[in-house]
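User: For a reading group we're discussing how well predicted structures match intuition. Take DUF4352 domain-containing protein. Before you show the prediction, I'll give you the sequence so everyone sees exactly what went in.
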Amino acid sequence: MLKKISIIVTILLMAIILVACGNESGQVNSNSDSQDTKQNDTLLSKDEFKQMFSDPDKFKGRKVDYYAKIFTEPEKDANGTYIQAFADPDNSTQNTLIQISDPNLDVKNDDIIHIVGTIEKKYDGENAFGGSISAPVIVASKIEKSDYATAFDPAIKTIDVNKEIDQHGYVIKLNKVEFGTENTRAYLTITNNTNGNVMFSTYDSKATQGNKQFDKGDSYGKYPELNTEILSGIKEEGVVVFKPLDANGESVKFIFEGHSSSDYSLEFEPYTFEVNMQ
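Assistant: Thanks. Here is the predicted 3D structure of DUF4352 domain-containing protein, as structure tokens, for the group to look at:
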């Protein structure tokens, strides 16, 4: 009978056992250890968090508060949930092994999560494919779902627009614009009130600011995307990502293209929204 062994659970349980053994053998120094713990349970700074990956044991007992992206399906047992996640998902680096005593935690592969917890130790071992793993073990007190913008590209400026343009029952609404350091994000709602299907051309979307033109940027699945073809009666929301615009610059125009795929006799002008930056 084949037995399925959870690599994540195994890694974390081994780490906890080793820590427990270490604590037991070191009871004779409990007074000094207690003093050290009190001195070293503060929250890691951003620089310390980066340093922690090269020597997690140096920061044992310190608090962490960070975001990460889950890159493999979490494992669960009666005692909790066990997660592997990248704190730097763009480069697939800063792997952390996370344990939380909540077997009902609702998270899955590719979720962005916010973690608050304590550094337990460094783990060195192998994954299910025989490759080596060297990563800090984090015992989490809190894990909650987040999103890419909040976690990795917070908005420098957000402008609520809430303007819509209706052509022949094909409605595009620009809800808001977020200006981040990596990109600029236009949040749209598209409503198809026509009797047929309509097309939305994400790749033809453009923005202008002063004498500069900005084409659609790459999102790589970081934000909700809009369908190319939208059926009659459907309303959907999504984000169009542009290369970063100047959050303190001139007014911006956002230009979106769409047409009917059922009635080619209908003429559509570009959906153009002007956003005042003041």
